[in-house]
Design brief:
- There is one protein chain.
- Strands 2-1-5 form a three-stranded parallel sheet. The chain has a two-stranded antiparallel sheet with strand order 3-4.
- The protein has a single domain, classed as Winged helix-like DNA-binding domain superfamily/Winged helix DNA-binding domain (Arc Repressor Mutant, subunit A).
- It is built from four helices and five strands; from the N terminus they run E-E-H-H-H-H-E-E-E.
- With 107 residues, the chain is of the alpha/beta class.
């Protein structure tokens, strides 16, 4: 699992953005958004997915004690930032953590 490099980019910002090997791979529109997405609870959820490899959202709900709709919303939001992949199987959705370590760049 790779370390994910995170950056903050205000919507509509036209400045040249750092890229390359050390540049951010995930962008957040604000510090507040980044803090919400990378909260301690969400980081613990990513580590649990990495360690236990649940085969479905139902299995993950049992491991976390959270409701499936609540997990689904959280995971879809994290999927939008590229932190989680949701693999569709025949009747289930399998969550896969793509990042559990983060390096945050602040300009």
């Amino acid at each position: 699992m790779k370390r994910c490099v995170v950056g903050i980019r205000r919507p509509g910002a036209q400045d040249e953005l750092p890229g390359g090997k050390d540049g951010p791979t995930v962008w957040f529109p604000s510090m507040a958004t980044m803090a919400a997405v990378l909260s301690e609870d969400n980081q613990a959820l990513l580590r649990l997915i990495r360690d236990k490899w649940p085969k479905s959202l139902t299995e993950l709900a049992e491991l976390t004690g959270r409701q499936v709709p609540n997990l689904s919303r959280t995971l879809r939001m994290m999927e939008g930032y590229g932190l989680v992949a949701l693999k569709k199987n025949v009747r289930e959705i399998e969550p896969v953590a793509l990042a559990t370590n983060f390096k945050i760049l602040i300009d």
